[in-house]
Design a protein that fits this description.
This protein is of the alpha+beta class. It has five helices and five strands. The protein is globular, with a radius of gyration of 15 Å.
Length: about 160
């Protein structure tokens, strides 16, 4: 199948197998390896990307399903002011350890903050419930999200 879409603001075209996942497409065809493959069942969240601004699990989304749409991977946030604050807070609050879950985690944090869904620790934990981390115990991730929420509110 022929595919044409926008990835991180740039047009991309290619031919894909009908069953190729979006994760495999961005990794293998676009060379964007920040989208991590963990469970490959849509459970862990390591492969989270945005499609037309909405978070999706790239490991269970077919590449063919995003034909004509816009995909943003972790590499697409280089000039994003909110993501810069989030990354800074993750570093300061020790919200990462091995880093495997981090790309999907920070994409979900950015989305939750943009939607105003991080008013309390409970809300933050609820928003991130679909992203698994085996290293941190989540305390640093929650703290980083709270810090980013507060800094972005002051800046905004």
């Amino acid at each position: 199948m022929k595919l044409a879409l926008t990835v991180n603001g740039a047009p991309v075209a290619g031919e894909v197998e009908d069953r190729m996942t979006l994760a495999d497409f961005v990794r293998d065809h676009c060379g964007l390896t920040g989208t991590h493959l963990g469970c490959e069942h849509g459970v862990c969240g390591a492969c989270s990307v945005l499609v037309d601004g909405e978070p999706v699990r790239a490991c269970i989304t077919l590449a063919a399903a995003v034909d004509g749409r816009s995909v943003t991977t972790i590499e697409g946030f280089e000039d994003d002011a909110a993501m810069a604050v989030i990354r800074e807070c993750f570093s300061e609050a020790h919200g990462l350890q091995c880093g495997f879950c981090t790309p999907g985690m920070v994409i979900m944090v950015r989305d939750a903050l943009a939607r105003g869904c991080c008013a309390s620790e409970h809300q933050i934990r609820d928003q991130l419930a679909g992203n698994l981390c085996r290293c941190t115990g989540y305390a640093g991730i929650v703290k980083a999200t709270e810090m980013a929420r507060d800094r972005l509110a002051k800046a905004g």
